[in-house]
Description:
- The chain is an all-alpha fold.
- 70% of the residues lie in helices and 0% in strands.
- The protein has helices at 2-15, 28-44, 51-77, 79-85, 88-91, 96-125, 132-162, 179-193, 202-234, 238-246.
Amino acid sequence: xxxxxxxxxxxxxxxxxxxxxxxxxxxxxxxxxxxxxxxxxxxxxxxxxxxxxxxxxxxxxxxxxxxxxxxxxxxxxxxxxxxxxxxxxxxxxxxxxxxxxxxxxxxxxxxxxxxxxxxxxxxxxxxxxxxxxxxxxxxxxxxxxxxxxxxxxxxxxxxxxxxxxxxxxxxxxxxxxxxxxxxxxxxxxxxxxxxxxxxxxxxxxxxxxxxxxxxxxxxxxxxxxxxxxxxxxxxxxxxxxxxxxxxxxxxxxxxxxxxxxxxxxxx
Length: 267
């Protein structure tokens, strides 16, 4: 429990960047928090650190730093992204209580997402017979997720340089409409898989499960926002209509083509 409190305190400190602009709680603050928590996990459990968990921590650190830098540069260079980021509903002043609850929710979520690796190492330190195979599986799956996300972002940037006014349906976007979100879901699935070899207690399973379910919800919520935004921009294009009818939204081979009507995903 002590290590979770340390990580939670760190998550609060780093994600506090959202007090400058509340969107940063979910974006830049998210990336920086994940990176900070990955480093803290390695430091706290250095004496019992295993290679697969070290690899996973490196993957999450790289992911978080890359995300924060990517969003900062995108905000500076992309007029269209800046327009979305600073639309009136986002810039409207939020009540202090609302800001505080967002801060608390984000800090808790980020610790929950990182908890499988910390539970694995904590239980190992306490003498539990952990299964390293699950740690290796988790690290590989998480790394694959990050690679997919990086490739998807690169392919989208390349496609937009060719035609900035057309939707992207090349590369990974032929398989799924939100491959970057799929990559992130895959990354956190890899992280969560470690729990199966970590000899987790019921409480640990609850914390890890809430963190995993929480980030999957966030990814589907983000996919819904993107779907609605693309429908406004490309909805009249017959090619786009054909594309969204044959291409799953976020999970390859899973026939979920739209979540626009699911208002409970609004976040």
